[in-house]
Design a protein that fits this description.
Layout: E1 5-11, E2 44-48, E3 63-65, E4 85-89, E5 93-97, E6 103-107, E7 113-117, E8 148-155, E9 161-164, H1 171-178, E10 196-200, E11 208-212, H2 227-231, E12 239-245, H3 254-268, H4 270-273, E13 277-282, H5 295-303, E14 310-312, H6 321-333, H7 348-351, E15 360-364, E16 367-371, H8 373-381, H9 387-399, H10 402-408, E17 416-419, E18 422-425
Parallel strand pairs: 1-3, 2-4, 9-11, 9-12, 12-13, 13-14, 16-17
Antiparallel strand pairs: 1-8, 2-7, 5-6, 5-8, 10-11, 15-16, 17-18
């Protein structure tokens, strides 16, 4: 089976904790703090690999974890930063948050490499927390926590044109005739289990990419057969060539077939169903009318008034292919040339906030002390030196009820608040 989907667990590295230590030197009995900072945790990075065309590597291994940063050391020694973990995927892979289905990244177009989860920043050593009133700080900042997610990987092939149609209508034969692709061709339903890509090279340099989407059947949009596995691959195509067996070699009605396939496209994604479509009436070399109704004229009468042009072709003899390809090329010129890229909907940095841990508010010798793992983690991943970081910190104090707790404890403007190594005066 073509591996075009996978569900994996990813985790970035935790930042190394800052260190608490004091100088111990001869003739320096009361040395100052010299605890070093922790190292940065490893990022989780996705990168496009041109040599890959499936997600097979993620079928058997499901968990990918970056290493944690090293703790700080004595004598201001900085902990070692952890290495990033780089996950290689084929171009066209869309990364989605597993629970919500929201897009985190689309690895296509100009996006060749993206950090999905950032490693935690290393915590500051106690050397940073010495003040005139606190010359022996016994506190070091913890490293920023790691981030973790379950994500779904979906491969949506990159192609300008998609070939759709029922099994055995000749899509693979057509593709092998007009492109450099070499799909397997045989008279079996669902012979094509992989979306085959081929490049059409026209003499005047107007080329385009075609994706042969495996044959659909009724109910494909609901997951019947293999259709649902591959419908996602036409989500990027700008135009579709609807291949139909005009000769009805298997006793099928070509007009009815087109309506059924379009109904499946509409059920799967109405926006895709409304994209431009061209009908390739295939197998004209096998048409025998015996004085009856010409199936080509019947197709034209049914669909051309609706703006869907019909081209009689033969994938076996090559008849009509040139006219069809030049028409498709002209149509593509009038469509948006930029690739279809799925916009980011889920931002791990904003979503993965750790605010579900307890805290305490107490008054000690006239100073209001706020402690607890919630505060430690917050201080670990917030840059209070930046305006945005400080505003985020104030919002955190309000949203978690810490400000309400302080007021309930009787705090007044100008009173001092201490949160581990951070000390500030309270003002509304």
């Amino acid at each position: 089976m073509f591996a075009d989907r996978a569900k994996i667990f990813i985790r970035s590295g935790k930042g190394g904790d800052g260190h608490v230590s004091f100088r111990r030197e001869l003739y320096v009995p009361n040395g100052g703090p010299d605890g070093g900072d922790g190292g940065r945790g490893g990022d989780v990075i996705f990168e496009v690999d041109e040599g890959l065309n499936t997600l097979q590597d993620y079928r058997h291994r499901r968990k990918f974890t970056a290493k944690d940063g090293e703790q700080g050391g004595k004598r201001r020694c900085h902990g070692k930063d952890a290495e990033d973990i780089v996950l290689k995927v084929p171009e066209g892979t869309v990364i989605k948050e597993a629970e919500s289905g929201k897009v985190i990244a689309d690895m296509s177009g100009d996006n060749r490499r993206q950090v999905i989860l950032k490693g935690g920043k290393g915590g500051l050593g106690n050397q940073h927390f010495a003040t005139a009133t606190m010359q022996v700080p016994k506190y070091a900042q913890p490293g920023q926590p790691s981030q973790e997610l379950w994500v779904n990987l979906e491969l949506k092939v990159i192609a300008d044109v998609g070939l759709v149609g029922f099994p055995n209508v000749g899509k693979s034969t057509f593709l092998s005739r007009v492109t450099n692709a070499q799909p397997k061709i045989a008279n079996y339903h669902f012979t094509t289990l992989n979306p085959n890509l081929g490049v059409v090279d026209l003499p005047d340099g107007r080329g385009f990419v075609i994706a042969d989407i495996p044959g659909l059947i009724e109910g494909a949009s609901e997951g019947v057969g293999l259709g649902h596995e591959f419908l996602r691959h036409i989500e990027r195509t700008k135009l579709m060539i609807h291949v139909v067996d005009a000769a009805g070699t298997e006793g099928r009605d070509p007009v009815d077939d087109i309506y059924k396939i379009n109904a499946e496209l509409m059920a799967y994604n109405p926006e895709i169903a409304n994209r431009p479509q061209v009908i390739a009436a295939n197998k004209i070399d096998a048409i025998y009318t015996d004085g009856g109704e010409d199936p080509i004229q019947r197709l034209k009468a049914e669909f051309e008034p609706k703006g869907c042009k019909v081209f009689p072709i033969s994938g076996v003899t090559g008849q009509g292919l040139k006219e069809l390809l030049y028409y498709v090329s002209d149509q593509l010129k009038d469509l948006d040339a930029s690739p279809i890229v799925f916009e980011q909907e889920y931002f791990p940095e904003d979503e993965l906030i750790y605010v579900d841990l307890p805290y305490t508010v107490e008054k000690e010798e006239g100073v209001y002390v706020v402690e607890g793992p919630k505060i430690e983690k917050m201080l670990g991943y917030t840059n209070l030196d930046s305006e945005k970081g400080f505003a985020f910190f104030q919002k955190f104090l309000k949203d978690t009820g810490i400000l309400d707790e302080l007021e309930a404890a009787g705090i007044q403007e100008g009173d001092t608040v201490r949160m581990y190594g951070l000390q500030f005066d309270y003002y509304k």
